[in-house]
Write a structure and sequence with these properties.
By secondary structure, this protein is mainly β. Helices cover 0% and strands 44% of the residues. The radius of gyration is 13 Å and the shape is globular.
Length: 126
């Protein structure tokens, strides 16, 4: 089990920034690929970002590339998603997730992630 607890969402104006975080419990945190996904109202859950076990590699959806940055702090068992230049279309519930298995540089399917946070709402006003 990898309990994940998210925080750091909120309401921000277009062009603003937020940095959700996701704290994990357990000693095996460093063995998991961490992902960020989001679900907007009426839409399917979509991949946002992935962070390798070491934190040295990341991959982003085209829609957020250049604006979002994923990172992890192994000492704190925490991953972050720095979101800059936010747009109204970024409005969604954001979820962090943990995945066993190897890292690859590409888009991840949410079905490959076995552990999920409760989600944090991000709302971007125009």
């Amino acid at each position: 089990q990898v309990p994940l607890v998210e925080s750091g969402g909120g309401l921000v104006q277009a062009g603003g920034s937020l940095r959700p975080s996701c704290a994990a419990s357990g000693r095996t945190f460093s063995t998991y690929v961490m992902g960020w996904f989001r679900r907007a109202p009426g839409k399917e859950r979509e991949f946002v970002a992935a962070i390798s076990q070491s934190g040295g590699s990341t991959y982003y959806a085209d829609s957020v590339k250049g604006r979002f940055t994923g990172s992890r702090d192994s000492a704190k068992n925490t991953v972050y998603l720095q979101m800059n230049s936010l747009k109204p279309e970024d409005t969604a519930v954001y979820y962090c997730a943990a995945r066993g298995g190897g890292w690859f540089r590409g888009t991840y399917d949410w079905k490959d992630f076995g552990y999920w946070g409760q989600g944090t709402q991000v709302t971007v006003s125009s």
